[in-house]
């Protein structure tokens, strides 16, 4: 059963999407419930992965290999390790959250909406568990289509612009990655990731260029400055659930790609590119934070803050040590949870008032105290208050970076200060100050919304207070990556 | 004294013969059957029988026929299947489209079947004379088909343009044949190849070189490669949509079929360095030129016409690799292209009303709301043509590009993938219209309400087959790969 667990998990949402498509259009409640039950089912199936995941095991678990295109020696190969385990759990969890958060927000073309959400879940899960270059590429590109449609059909005013920009940016970014994958495949005769990593013997100059093509695709997805301009547009225009998924999961695909593909395949190129990527990461941190400070729209503030936070994660990846890598993995989960929560909270307001501008709010704590509490918790988690999840990840990343490059670490720390500044300012503008009478009709969170918020907050505390549970599972994978890097850099030096 | 009878192996060219007989039968029954759509059924029947014959012959050892002027091998049989799929889908499109346009006439099917037989002959030909015969059988039928909507200026213009320029191309080709014959003393591809192997200096002979160049020009016309593509947009746009669908896939595939056979058997891998760069250069300008022109189009039919130029460029990337890997890639690509491009044209045919209205891109606004399934398959075709997974077009591009990488033409692949990314602009624009816009002006809104789209069963079948193949063979391309590899390797 264990062997099939991953495959079953991946395809539950896809089958669900087909079921949703077959449901009559007017049975909207049935469609919603069906989608919810399917995501909950996927969530339920994903938890055994966690409980059966063996700590201190080097290599992949729950591997499943099936011949897919035998004539070309391309296999369907999926598996899980510490890099991907929590991202899979994050995906199943946030997908359920996203479905639940769209319950009343989506009234048009309900059937297509939920079908696309489910297809998106399948594609994202596929990205995180694929161990074959082409399988990965397929899921990677396949995640693009539903997301672009979600933004383009159910988004705001400039949704079409945002959607097209999203497609063009990400597709252009990944185009060269495909060429590099082809180079590997035809050189080595296989597209199997473990086999490639084990047997690869590329000259360093090749590695440098192939790494570049992969890195470009991932940098666009993360997104790293200066490839980030699609992100604020997509975020602001996307429906709430789209933003949750986009920030929560899709951006992680880029960071994950660095760790799963770019680094292990081309370790000798890492020393060459590290200064560039680390610099871009630092620029992203500072630039994202500065621009976030200037935002008048709550959603675009969170969008730019994502640029900054993802910069942190990339900094961790290229900090040159295991600590930074582990911190980056955990921080990916953290960012998914906190930013997902922030977007959700803003969505709660937007659904009622149809505005996200700070000037339209103010002093609403008196009307909506429960909302206020949860919003503050989301802010605290995002700025990295000790005891909550964000702190652990940022701390470990900075610790790892400091050992190698104290200048970058110093800039990173400054980024944290800026984050506290803009997020607390946002909270002040929304919740405190003089009460804006336009918000008189604002209602507090209902049961469904509180259920979502509580379920997210639980994880803030669990990760914040018991980080060792997570690092125990993450560390073997990052240690292996670190060994690979060290081996390559000694080779390069030799 | 024994008389030396030439051996004529009829079974080797059985599929071709079946198609020709069907064409003749259709012509005959045209006299008796009055709803001409019935002739479509008859054509489909004949094509099915021909397909079965192909599948039965597949895997047998190559059978030369007609004194080594043609051959029935895996390559030709796979190509035959591609032509048959193309023809069958076009017949299905035509059956409802022609009725809607008020030009349901029997000779349409006859001409189409003759064109197919010409294409099949080009795939099987191992002699330049037979290549030329096939080319002309196909082209003449297509000239007439392009002008089939004789009440419409554009269609007549398309036919005339196609004819004049096609005749030029044929002349170039024939001149090339003559020069090659003059240089090598043969028109047989294998003998030419042997001659070049024995006289490696032969390629510096100006006569042979010019001959090869002229042959390439002739083919470049037929596959609409830049800079010989000028006829394409007007012809594709003016011709009846069902014809455009047919020739954008079939004629292109036939051109590639003969081109690859010529390059591989006469100027094979040993001489690859001599023509590889020329083909690669042709690929670059064709991809880029086609894409750039397609970007500017507001009319979906024209956009597909220009983008078909770009696709010829992608296929040329596979040809440039000069390896068998490249040939598999091209075959797969052509099959994929048959499904997705015919599917896309079928959708255009569905939307098109009298006098060629309905191919402007804004006509697609809000289609997803009006016709969810039609919009869905159209989205499949557009994504597949872009080369996005998990659709069939992805695998075609993957392997064609991969073959070029393996042949050391990585720079060409970089140009190719960047071009694919550019093509996303105009393909996605259609999806954007269908899903993200709603019909705007009152007339458009009224239009959306008023006449139901022309979705008769033949076109429904076309969309279902093409859509399913585009998605399913994208998710699981193994059977098609196995067929192609089995066919070519035996």
pLDDT < 50 stretches of chain B: none
Termini separation of chain B: 39 Å
What value does the average pLDDT of chain A take?
88
Average pLDDT metric of chain B: 87
Shape of chain A: globular
Total helical segments of chain A: 19
Descriptive notes:
The complex is a heterodimer of chains A (494) and B (490). Chain A is mainly alpha-helical. Chain A contains 19 helices and two strands. In chain A, strands 1-2 form a two-stranded antiparallel ribbon. In chain A, strand 1 and strand 2 (74-80) form a beta hairpin. Chain A is globular, with a radius of gyration of 21 Å. Chain B has a two-stranded antiparallel sheet. In chain B, 75% of the residues lie in helices and 1% in strands. The chains are: A mainly alpha (494), B mainly alpha (490).
Element layout with pairings:
The complex is a heterodimer of chains A (494) and B (490).
Chain A: H1 2-22, H2 28-51, E1 61-69, E2 74-80, H3 82-101, H4 110-129, H5 133-142, H6 144-154, H7 159-188, H8 193-199, H9 204-221, H10 230-237, H11 240-265, H12 270-293, H13 298-317, H14 322-353, H15 369-383, H16 389-404, H17 406-431, H18 447-465, H19 467-493
Antiparallel strand pairs in A: 1-2
Helix pairs in contact in A: 1-2, 1-4, 2-3, 2-4, 3-4, 3-11, 3-14, 3-19, 4-5, 4-6, 4-11, 5-7, 6-7, 7-9, 7-10, 9-11, 10-13, 11-13, 11-14, 12-13, 12-17, 13-14, 13-16, 13-17, 14-15, 14-16, 14-18, 14-19, 15-17, 15-18, 16-17, 16-18
Chain B: H1 14-29, H2 37-57, E1 63-65, E2 70-72, H3 74-101, H4 107-124, H5 128-146, H6 153-184, H7 189-198, H8 206-222, H9 232-238, H10 241-266, H11 272-295, H12 300-320, H13 324-351, H14 367-370, H15 372-386, H16 392-406, H17 410-436, H18 442-449, H19 457-475, H20 478-489
Helix pairs in contact in B: 1-2, 1-4, 2-3, 3-4, 3-10, 3-13, 3-19, 3-20, 4-5, 4-10, 5-6, 5-10, 6-8, 6-9, 7-10, 8-10, 9-10, 9-12, 10-12, 10-13, 11-12, 11-17, 12-13, 12-16, 12-17, 13-15, 13-16, 13-19, 15-17, 15-19, 16-17, 16-19
